[in-house]
Amino acid sequence: MDMKTFLSLEWEIMAPEFIILGIIILISLLDIFMSKRADRKVLGWIGIAGVIGAAVSLALLIDHSAASILYDTFRLDSFSKAFKLLLLIGAVLVLFLAVSYEPKEGIEYKGEFYYLFLAALLGAMMMASSGDLISLFTGLELLSISSYILAGMRKKHLLSNESAMKYVINGGISTAVTLFGMSYVYGLAGTTNLKAISTYLTRNLDEQHIYLLGLAFFMIFIGLSFKLASAPFHMWAPDVYEGAPTPVTAFLGVASKTAGFVLLVRVLLVIFLSVPSDSWPGSDPLLIKVQDYMAFLAGATMIIGNVIALRQRNVKRLFAYSSIAHAGYLLVAVATVSTLFETMWFYLLAYLFMNLGAFAVIQLLTEKADSEDISHFSGLYRRSPVLAVAMAIFILSLAGIPGTAGFIGKLNIFIGALITTPAHYVLASVMIAATIVSYYYYFGIMSQMFFRPQENGEKVMIQAGIGVVIGICAVGTILFGIMPNLALDFLHTNFDFTDLFQ
Amino acid sequence: MENAWIIPLFPLLSFVILLLFGRRLKEASAFVGILLTLASFVYSMLVLFERFSAPTFKTEAVWLSIGDIQLTSGFEVNQLNALMLFIVSLVSFLVHIYSKGYMSGDERFSVFYAYLGLFTFAMLGLVLSPNLLQTYIFWELVGVGSFLLIGFYFYKEEAKAAAKKAFIMTRIGDAGLFIGMILLFWQVGSFEYDEIFRAVDKGTISTGMITLTAILIFAGAAGKSGQFPLHTWLPDAMEGPTPVSALIHAATMVAAGVYLVAALFPLFTASDTALMTVALVGAFTAIFAASIGLVQTDIKRVLAYSTVSQLGYMMLALGSAGYAAGIFHLMTHAFFKALLFLAAGSVIHAVHTQDIEKMGGLWKKMRLTGPLFLIGTLAISGVPLFSGFFSKDEILIAAWAHGHTVLFWLAVVSAFFTSFYMFRLFFMVFSGEPRTDISKVHEPPSAMTLPMVVLGILAVVSGYVNTPWFGTFLGDWLTEGNEALGNGHMEGSAWIMLVATVVSLLGIFLAWLIYGKKTLSRDWLAGSSSMTYSILYNKYYIDEFYQLSFVKIAKGISNFLRIFEAFFVEGIVKGIAGAVQGLGKTGAKQQDGQVQTYGAVAFFGLAVLIVIFALTGGYLL
């Protein structure tokens, strides 16, 4: 490619990514040249401004028709736009949390915190936009490696160190497994471009290669289940969630999970939905054939997450298991494939609001304390009624009580599982049962807040940054719970997901 | 009527205001709650009057679209809904006023009013819903509201346990409702009541499916309305404040089950089996609860069991195709039972005990509460000229006309029981010599007496909207324009009315002999058949049975799962890690979270999946 063609590419479709990249460079330079004692908070505000800028530039691109540059490695289609929007909203909220985060012993490297965080975001955005296994993988690694360091950001905090260590080791295993799976795909198709893989395999697939493709599918799926925190690669989540600084935990729970699902769905739909599962023409795609396995893993994830959560006293561990459970609900949507995009998008939107809101409250209550025991919530209604009501909204939504966005999200998934042919009754029933189990631990927090006398009578001060997050999340949770069509209409009018396959 | 949606919003507003500013408003919270519920009551009344002349109003908008399916939300004002709006908002309004006196001085006064607002909102929303899904949503919200109200005195262990029990017992029923709802949706493709009835009419759903869904939905109704065998939460729920009992356990929430069956009545009439189930459960609950009521000594518990029994009556009416009769009794019962609860609250307020063995001779001291309680008692006993007489008569006629001879006689016997235990209650509380010091007893403040007077009047006159003598206005109006609901009134022989009157008077007479005049020894009942007495007193040991069976089983399962989790799941994990570390070490270190275990589990999972895939796909052979 000579310089002229290089410059003539439609670079503007990468504008959001470039803005984030620019901000990363800016913040890291500022961090080096700023006086050691200067407050690094200003870097956080720059980061927030940058992410909002990226979101605006993405909004300007919303009518842009599907396009790709750099030999189809970077794609801007409805799929990537819709999910990048979620990532950016989540990132702004998490940055607000990070700016207000002040653990007891303080954080020495707050500057790094911001640009590593933005680097992780950039990786996630690249994952959403890639059309090639190579760029998918580099995006994934950018996200992962930044997250490993972020988890260990509280350098003098033992648990934080442990968390980073465990995260990096398990992450390494998952990466190896994913990559191994991808190498099979490459070996069979001879190309790394997703579309080219799909075209080649649809036409030239040797019957004897189908099993190898199946192997590849399982390896990619299991490898990525690390990012989703779903079974069988879920066990790291509680330890890492517990030890990581709360804003990072929030990021892992929301943005990282979203990115994982985006990547998974793109690979599954583009490659495995087009590949036949048998030699005779007109046979089901491979994805349909492995549906039962995905359904099984979804069920197992829901059960494991919700059942083990029952025994947790540590709030962050509890939310780790709850996050595993939610990954399970999302996998139900993936496994049943029907109305996948809007269902998944809406659920992730709802999850973003309710989970970030909950983490904002958790951060507020526990950052100064030595432990994260659930008793920190006791008597919250007495100490701060507003905070307790907000937390109650998030919890009700996580539990899927009507009137909240979480309910609509679950309802979508549930009905989606029933209206496809063949309908997934068993999976839908498991989902209901798991949800009912989850009431138990969610209402445990509720009863702490409303029914227990307070243990320490101190008032809770709400910093501006966290107040913004809690406010936005509470409004979002209720608004999309009562008028879900606001979000769904927006999705329908602006995005046409079929351009994923173009 | 176009603006009927605003009715539930007033109490919601009250809830929000009180939740956020309640602590600052303190006792002034009462006025917020009272004014806002007054607004919804006035509006409901206007809607009801408008509905007398105007046709049913229904409006809907697309709420959520999933794929090709569109779910709607909106509201509907038909006869049933309009009547329910009126009843619920009226009783709620009166209870709001009453609570101002009753709850005065409570530390969490404003919280109580906030909860009342939430509950009223949910209940009003429920009766406006035009489709099953929306109904279900509000149904659950009603459950949450009642959970909060029953558990209001959460520092009392019993109250906490009762709140939990109410929530769990009704949830068991709700699971049935939910499954029934989903099955209907699957068959009809819509949650709309109208669509469902159309499908039932056209016969697109098989009879078996109709029966199944109707019975599943009835399970939900039985949970909320305290029907056997899901009734045990209702008496325990008496741990809540007394105004709550009047609101939730007399007029509104427990009536929701009856309402649901009535709202889905065309579905039930399409299946004889379903109707029969409703009638059977109703009749059995009626006599079962009435017999327990005979020996209870807690004033509120007697009323609770009488509520269960009366709800059974309503179900019996619906199950005997007596749509109008069931709704009619729902209305009269709402008034006289709320009256009885409020009067009981006034007694408890005065003597600070709920044990009727310790009461007595209050008639002279409570010149207002006494007569009002008597009116309620006469009404529930079905003494002629009081409201309960007319509605109970309609139910008996319906049961007889539908050919349920056995159920009819069961109902007659429970009517006898009812008048007996109600008058036993009355005599023990108000007549005879005081059994404790009652010199300080006085009438409650006017905030409490006023609602009782209003209900007292209604308990007498509300029966006259539907009588065989002056016209069956209510029944005709309720069934107008809808064949499926049956006749507004069924012609019955005069002897049924005579029988009902005789048994009710007989019950009163017997109660008077034992507890009023004391000609017959009290041990006559307790002593002569102590076995029966202890069975009744212990409520047929139903709770013990549940304790032994379900709770034990549930505990067993949870223990099993815990052991399963601890030994089996982790066992596999440990087995692999053991190769690396040795089994002994892992036990202690398991809690630290071994990284290699995590990886191993993932790897093991992958391996299992691949092997199964290979075997089932036939790739290995």
UniProtKB/TrEMBL annotation, chain A:
Entry keyword Cell membrane: yes
A biological process from GO: ATP synthesis coupled electron transport
Record membrane topology: Multi-pass membrane protein
UniProt keywords, alphabetically: Cell membrane, Membrane, NAD, Oxidoreductase, Quinone, Translocase, Transmembrane, Transmembrane helix, Transport, Ubiquinone
EC class: translocase
Main location: membrane
Catalytic activity: a quinone + NADH + 5 H(+)(in) = a quinol + NAD(+) + 4 H(+)(out)
Cellular localization per UniProt: Cell membrane; Membrane
Database matches in Pfam families: Proton_antipo_M
EC identifiers of the protein: 7.1.1.-
Transmembrane segments: 13-30, 42-62, 82-101, 113-130, 136-155, 167-189, 209-229, 250-273, 293-311, 318-338, 344-365, 386-419, 425-443, 464-483
Positions of the NADH:quinone oxidoreductase/Mrp antiporter transmembrane domain: 130-431
Family: Belongs to the complex I subunit 2 family.
NCBIfam families: NDH_I_N, PRK05777.2-4
Primary role: NDH-1 shuttles electrons from NADH, via FMN and iron-sulfur (Fe-S) centers, to quinones in the respiratory chain. The immediate electron acceptor for the enzyme in this species is believed to be a menaquinone. Couples the redox reaction to proton translocation (for every two electrons transferred, four hydrogen ions are translocated across the cytoplasmic membrane), and thus conserves the redox energy in a proton gradient.
Name recorded for this polypeptide: NADH-quinone oxidoreductase subunit N
Source organism: Bacillus methanolicus PB1
Underlying gene: nuoN
UniProtKB/TrEMBL annotation, chain B:
Record's subcellular location: Cell membrane; Membrane
Domain NADH:quinone oxidoreductase/Mrp antiporter transmembrane: 129-418
UniProt key word Cell division: no
Main location class: membrane
Topology with respect to the bilayer: Multi-pass membrane protein
Gene3D superfamilies (alphabetical): 1.20.5.2700
Domain NADH-Ubiquinone oxidoreductase (complex I) chain 5 N-terminal: 63-113
UniProt GO molecular function: NADH dehydrogenase (ubiquinone) activity; NADH dehydrogenase activity
Record GO biological process: ATP synthesis coupled electron transport; electron transport coupled proton transport
Segments passing through the bilayer: 6-22, 29-49, 80-99, 111-130, 136-155, 167-185, 205-223, 244-268, 274-295, 302-328, 334-351, 372-391, 406-427, 447-465, 494-515, 598-620
Gene Ontology CC, one term: plasma membrane
Keywords: Membrane, Transmembrane, Transmembrane helix, Ubiquinone
The keyword Transmembrane helix appears for this protein: yes
Family per similarity comment: Belongs to the CPA3 antiporters (TC 2.A.63) subunit A family.
Name of this protein: NADH:ubiquinone oxidoreductase subunit L
Organism: Bacillus methanolicus PB1
